[in-house]
């Protein structure tokens, strides 16, 4: 699939209807999501692989993974409302994904590849930690994730703690639109990195 076609497909996945600031519910920009998915696809971590999307929200990453041939795809989110949007968007895209209303800290779903856009910890310090811990524990091969550039040392340290290693890390274009009441500007540019980490779940 061409990059432009993938971006358009991801743009058709709606954002949050009523975003909850305490959960940092912000839709992954379609361009950034496409870059993550294309990187995973080019490294052999999507097509024919099982994929788990932690904190999937309205399903942009999960749906994109399924479009690119991942099977099966499971999306986990603690909030049931965006999962309803994700189900409708998956039907519209013609893909099957298993969407589950669960807390990421409690899920035991394992997959070859974990994809995620976890909270950056802007509203609650440490909100991202459970996502990273579960990602390293559940990914059989790789984790593809976004994080604030301020978290580079934290993520590198976590990788070492979980016997994983950094395969790649690069800045990605990221504009945050006005979502919450405390946002003053129409758009804010954030410094965000895309991470690729290799891990192996103990057998």
Architecture blueprint of SSEs:
Layout: H1 3-11, H2 30-42, E1 51-54, H3 60-67, E2 73-77, H4 80-93, E3 98-101, E4 111-116, H5 129-138, E5 139-148, H6 152-161, E6 165-172, E7 175-177, E8 187-189, E9 192-198
Parallel strand pairs: 1-2, 1-4, 2-3, 4-5
Antiparallel strand pairs: 5-9, 6-9, 7-8
Helix pairs in contact: 1-2, 1-3, 2-3
| Second-tier CATH architecture | 3-Layer(aba) Sandwich
CATH class: Alpha Beta
Estimate the helix proportion, in percent.
Answer: 25-40%
CATH homologous superfamily assignment:
Vaccinia Virus protein VP39
The N- to C-terminal Cα distance equals: 35 Å
**Global Rg:** 15 Å
- Helix/strand-derived category reads alpha/beta
How many domains would you count in the coordinates?
Answer: 1
Task: Kindly describe this structure.
This protein has a single domain, classed as 3-Layer(aba) Sandwich (Rossmann fold), CATH 3.40.50.150. Helices cover 32% and strands 25% of the residues. The chain contains six helices and nine strands, in the order ααβαβαββαβαββββ. α4 links the parallel β2 and β3. The radius of gyration is 15 Å and the shape is globular. The mean pLDDT is 90.
């Amino acid at each position: 699939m061409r990059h432009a076609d993938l971006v358009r497909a991801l743009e058709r996945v709606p954002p949050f209807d009523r975003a909850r600031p305490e959960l940092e519910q912000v839709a992954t920009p379609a361009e950034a999501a496409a870059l993550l998915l294309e990187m995973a696809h080019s490294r052999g971590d999507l097509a024919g692989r099982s994929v788990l999307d932690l904190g999937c929200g309205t399903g942009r990453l999960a749906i994109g993974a399924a479009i690119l041939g991942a099977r099966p795809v499971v999306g986990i989110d603690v909030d049931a409302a965006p999962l309803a949007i994700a189900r409708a968007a998956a039907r519209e895209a013609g893909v099957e994904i298993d969407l589950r209303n669960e807390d990421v800290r409690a899920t035991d779903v394992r997959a070859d590849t974990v994809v995620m856009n976890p909270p950056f910890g802007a509203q609650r310090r440490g909100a991202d930690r459970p996502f990273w811990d579960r990602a390293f524990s559940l990914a059989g091969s790789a984790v593809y994730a976004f994080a604030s550039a301020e978290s580079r040392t934290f993520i590198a340290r976590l990788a070492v703690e979980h016997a994983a290693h950094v395969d790649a890390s690069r800045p990605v274009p990221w504009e945050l639109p006005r979502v919450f009441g405390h946002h003053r500007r129409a758009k804010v540019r954030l410094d965000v990195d895309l991470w690729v980490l290799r891990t192996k779940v103990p057998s």
